[in-house]
Amino acid sequence: MNNAILQINELKTYFFTRLGVVKAVDGVSFDLRKGECLCLVGESGCGKTATALSILRLVDSPPGRIMGGAVMYHGEDLLQSTGARLRQIRGNRIAMIFQDPQSSLNPVFTVGDQIMEPIRLHLKLGQRPARERALSLMAQVGIPQAKERMKYYPHQFSGGMKQRAMIAAALSCDPEILIADEPTTALDTTIKAQILDIFRDLKQQKDMSILFITHDLGTVAGIADRIIVMYGGRIAEAGSVLDIFDRPKHPYTWGLLNCLPTISERREKMTPIPGVIPSLIDPPQGCIFYPRCQWHMPVCQEKRPEEFVISGEHIVACYLHK
Description:
- The chain is of the alpha/beta class.
- The protein folds into 2 domains: 4-84 and 178-321, Rossmann fold (3-Layer(aba) Sandwich), CATH 3.40.50; 102-174, no CATH class.
- The protein has helices at residues 48-55, 83-89, 101-104, 111-122, 127-140, 146-149, 159-170, 189-206, 217-220, 241-246, 251-258, 298-302; strands at 4-16, 21-33, 37-41, 64-73, 76-77, 94-97, 177-181, 209-214, 226-231, 234-240, 308-311, 314-316.
- The strands form 2 sheets. It has an 8-stranded mixed β-sheet with strand order 6-7-8-3-9-10-12-11, sandwiched between helices. Strands 2-1-4-5 form a 4-stranded antiparallel β-sheet, covered by helices on one side.
- Helix 8 links the parallel strand 7 (177-181) and strand 8 (209-214).
- It is globular.
- The two termini are 26 Å apart.
């Protein structure tokens, strides 16, 4: 049974530049279910972050503009909601962890004040209970000596600690949905593993729905319930973890998996995907991946492929499986 709490339908987000219109998100549809971790995966520039920002209408305008579609949250279309209503939802019911904690934290306020801000704004708590809640959250995400470090400024935190502080701030109001945009980027392997453990615990203990965005398929293997592979502002393939890792169907997914190191076989070198992502200002008329695909057919250049159902929830936008 589909118990979706967030439904994205035909979302389109374009950026209007001097060179032309960039179709960053071009007709994306998916749902996020209660208590699941859904991962958006793809190369830089494929539309992952633009999709996440569009959900909360955080796209800078100009140059960005949400051109169409719907984002349904408990039956309410967030794209049609008033600014006041969105402010009630952002950071409260739907929270977001941004990609770069360095630029997301205000350098002139202490970390403790920034974690307490959404608590006081949305939960209407006083100074002392807000402080106690912030201390509890900092301990929950693994920040040692939380009482002392509440007084620290962002520049006094390491990269991993800043990311933990961002997670604590996002969790401050017990959101139903947590959107995490590349939360492990630029972290070393040990800290990255610790951050992923935090997300696993959140999902299990709080039954929280997580939309996790990353360019690394290897990162999501241990936390995802479902995976959506994006390319050129569109969905190339979607399915369960087993579908994507054991039964991939799209040539782009094959390419991503071939780029991963493995201990089961020895490789002299990784196998890169040939070519580069085409310009989203003037994308190919048909399948946007066909210029890089060694299996492309004449129809791939003429018409955009529909999403074909492989089995159950496993879908792929590729004429090889028509």
